[in-house]
Each structure stands twice: as C-alpha cells, then as structure tokens.
Write a structure and sequence with these properties.
The chain has 9 helices and no strands. With 198 residues, the chain is an all-alpha fold. The longest helix has 31 residues. It is elongated, with a radius of gyration of 19 Å.
Length: 198
C-alpha cells in the first residue's frame, strides 16, 4: 500500500511542477526562465525539478508537448461529437479553441514555443506536432487542403489577437471565419470567452 501512495504522490508532484513550468515559461520563455523560478512556484527544491525532468530544456519540451496534446485531444473530442450530431466539425473545433484561448498561460507557452524554434529540438518538436495536427484535420469529413489551411490560419491569427489583446485582429479573424463557415454560420470570437452562433 505504501509504494502505491508514493507513486501517486510522485505523479502528482510531476504535474504540479509541469503546471508551474507552463506559467513561468509562458512569461519568460525557454531562455529567460530559471529552474529556481519553476521550483519556487511549485514549492519544491531545484534539485527535485531536475530529478523529475533531467534539465530545464527537457521540462520545456514536455510542457510544449502537453500543450499540443491538449489541443489535439480537444479537436478530436469536438470532431467526434460534431460528426455524431451531423454537424460541421470545423465549426465545433473553432468554437472550442476560442474558449481554450482564455487560458493565457497555455496560449503564451504556445507562442513561446514558436519563439524558441531557434533551438533545433524545439523546432523539430513544433514542426512534427503541427504536421500531425494538420494531417488529423485533413482526415475529417468535409476537409480540403484549402479549408484546413484557412482553419489553421484563423487559429494563428486568433493566437496573436489574444496575445496582444487587439480587437481589430479579432474582428479580422471573425470575418475570415465567416467566409469559411457554410450557410452563414460563424463563430463570435470577441471577447475570446465563450462563443455564439449567429
């Protein structure tokens, strides 16, 4: 019974350190974040952080990987639900992604991952995971290369709009989505919390 509790506690600590890392990396990126800051936020020692993840770089890679995993899982769940309902999976995924942007730490970590692509390992990770996301979108009903490209372009525009809180970009993204969605159904992106169908 004791070993089971120990493993559970270690797993929980790992998630807590990862959560702390997301918040710190979101603010200062791979190079500007110290392991001390992450350890302090997680209320653990710096050596414990390294014992769990090996290095700050490995921790950054795991945080970025978890971010991509969450986006992929969100899109998969929304697409499956939409297809079962006979609805447009892209519209459903778009609405869900807008809600996800309310988590500023996750958003800024995603932006920091692209900024860190001068590092070959980070670049390879982002390139591979983005390609996997694109390929999964291309497999959906109604997908074309143009629609998937437009969907991803709107997503990137929304990232920038949310990151710098610029309503004009949000309006542009909404206009682009209006052109992409069938039968006049659009997603209302402002103020990037919740969505409505017009």
């Amino acid at each position: 019974m004791g070993p089971v509790r120990t493993r559970r506690a270690a797993s929980q600590s790992r998630e807590e350190v990862l959560d702390a890392a997301v918040t710190e990396f979101a603010k200062a990126g791979l190079y500007g974040t110290s392991a001390d800051a992450i350890a302090g936020r997680a209320d653990v020692s710096q050596p414990y952080v390294f014992r769990l993840f090996g290095s700050k770089h490995a921790l950054f890679m795991e945080a970025v990987t978890r971010g991509f995993d969450r986006i992929h899982a969100l899109f998969t769940a929304e697409a499956v639900s939409a297809i079962a309902d006979g609805a447009d999976p892209f519209e459903r995924m778009g609405k869900a992604y807008v809600s996800m942007l309310a988590d500023r730490d996750e958003l800024m970590l995603q932006m920091q991952s692209y900024a860190a692509c001068g590092d070959p390992e980070v670049q390879a990770l982002c390139r591979t995971r983005f390609a996997e996301l694109r390929d999964s979108l291309l497999s959906l009903p109604g997908a074309t290369s143009e629609r998937v490209g437009g969907f991803l372009a709107v997503g990137m525009l929304l990232n920038v709009a949310a990151a710098i809180d610029l309503p004009a970009l949000i309006d542009d993204a909404e206009s682009m989505a209006r052109q992409m969605c069938p039968e006049g159904a659009v997603i209302s992106f402002s103020p990037l919390r919740g969505t409505t169908q017009e």
